[in-house]
Amino acid sequence: MGWKGILTGVALLAATGATVTGCAAYREAQAEEDNPPIGRILDVDGHPVHAWVKGSGPDVVLIHGSSGNLRDFTHSFAGRLTDRYRVIAFDRPGLGYTPEMAPGGDSMKAQAALLQKAAAQLGANRPIVVGQSLGGAVALAWATYTPDTLAALVTISGVSHPWTTPLSTYYKVLSNPVGQHTVVPLMTAFVPESTIEASIKSIFDPFPVPDGYADYVGARLTLRRASLRANADQRARLLSDVKTQSQLYGSAITVPVEVVHGTEDSTVGPELHVPQMERDVPQTRVTLIAGAGHMPHHTHPDPVVAAIDSAAARAGLR
């Protein structure tokens, strides 16, 4: 191939790259226009944190899981609590409207520290901390590393202990520098609605997706380039973080703990995480919801609310 051919190839690659970048930027702008912040943006030591606050009573902090944002909780679940609690839902770093703190994936400990400071800024000095899925690992980090800054802990389908299955190919690719510069922009630009719908459906199996959830939750916010990278980086480091913090649970966690898990959760298996929480944290009370999958706060909200009420009572808040 002569210089003319080489230059032609370079020009085509540049044009393709520009097209992908332009399409990705358009998709990101559209996602943010369709799903603007629904709370306030706090300044926490110079870092923006998106917070939604509603209700009155003892403070409850809600921490969402992987690939999500605070809208997962505000869709319907938070409304079941606001009659007797002041409910605070946060976007975790890298997702929704809270930007990542540092390149390479924010640790569970760093995320917990940021959200604890955000809660304190709102006057929630010892809230009940509720975390779902990966948010459960962040809630556990909060209880482990700053145990005097919460009144009780509730995990919903929570990641608590190490596992042996390897990181999925999806996260291996998206947490790899090459994948982050090539695959991520392509996903932002071209992932179709049908793929988003199938992904949402999979996390609710074996139950249907709640009415209006797919339109409300703003899934395309997670498909923004920065969020895809941050989410993948966090997932890639999750096992290491959990290995470290789980060794400290028994000596560090002193508050009442409620663990809620669906028996049919195929994403975060109850057979692994629940018994080890009971072993390592003796004050753990377990609610196993027969037949429930990974999203019981949507499909079986009553026992989840009951666990939060129990945590409040055990902490002397009700």
TrEMBL record:
SUPFAM superfamilies: alpha/beta-Hydrolases (SSF53474). Pfam families: Abhydrolase_1 (PF00561). One of its GO terms (molecular function) is hydrolase activity. The keyword Hydrolase applies. PROSITE patterns: PROKAR_LIPOPROTEIN. InterPro entries: AB_hydrolase_1 (IPR000073), AB_hydrolase_fold (IPR029058), AB_hydrolase_sf (IPR050266). The keyword Hydrolase applies. Residues 60-301 form the AB hydrolase-1 domain. GO terms for cellular component: membrane. Keywords: Hydrolase. This is Alpha/beta hydrolase. It comes from Pseudaestuariivita atlantica.
